[in-house]
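Re-running Sugar ABC transporter permease to confirm reproducibility after the cluster update. Everything else is unchanged from the original entry.
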Amino acid sequence: MPERDAREPVTGRTPVLAGAGEKGRNAMARPAAGGRRSAAPRRIDAARARFIAGFLAAPVLLYAVYVIAPYAQAFSIALTDWRGVSASPRFVGLENFRRLAGDSVFWTAVGHNALLLVLLPLLTIAIALSFAFLLNAGGANGGGVAGSRFYRVVFFFPQVLAVAIVAVLFQQVFRPDGSGMLNAPLIALGLEPVGFLSDPGVAFWSILGVLVWQAVGFYVVLFSAGMASIPREMYEAARIDGAGPGRLFFRITLPLLWDTVQVGWIYLGIAALDVFAVVWVMTPERGGPDHSTTVMAAEIYRNAFQYFRFGYASAMGVVLFFFTVAFAAAALRLSRRERVEY
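Result of re-run:
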């Protein structure tokens, strides 16, 4: 076989180089095509963003006008001595807050709210969980007591009544004479009537009892709905293993219902900080006797609409706002736990 002359051009490389050049040109062209294809998702994302922004614009505007703006206005009024009538209130800076620090009545109200903050959620949730567990897991076969739907309606009934109506009803129940539902039997037996609303040592606990009575029915229904979603097989398997009602509640019901309990605790805590109507309607002196039942909301109303010290009342409102936010944040943080799936 004759040897190839060294001077003869190597023609075999030409197609390879040509092919490589064609592939290179195609490779250089691909990013441009890919750029055209990636532009379409960007246009879709922009359209989606405009669509979402259009739907959010009205709610955000309403929230800003009716929620954020009043808070901002309250913060600004708290820095003035506005009495509700002057067009140009005088700026006093933090003077209202310095006065609050030495206001013994206000700090008495803060103490009552703090006590309600602990006791109202604790008692309401404990009672509501007990009733809900009996309604859903009680009875002979563990399938709930007979007539549980009727009992839920009865428990929920106080929620139908306005808070002011509840206060008026219990004002009659606590009457100190023979017409009071609680004192009438005592008087009939020859015993001294109890001043449920006139005795400084009893009045606060009477208010707490009314608040628990008014709130517990809603949480019975709420917890019952949560318990109804727990599979019955879990209870049946635990009963086969010999678990009693106590173990069923603490090992199955409570862990699976913890998120609902957490929400209830936060709502009840906020309600304890914002309580007003029951105290204002039921008690003598609107927080008496001798400030034994007064709360922050009552002092805010009294200073604003009886003493016309709107700047001072707004400072109280600012303090109440930060107490409420701090409680909600602390409750969410401290009650956080691993979620149980089923």
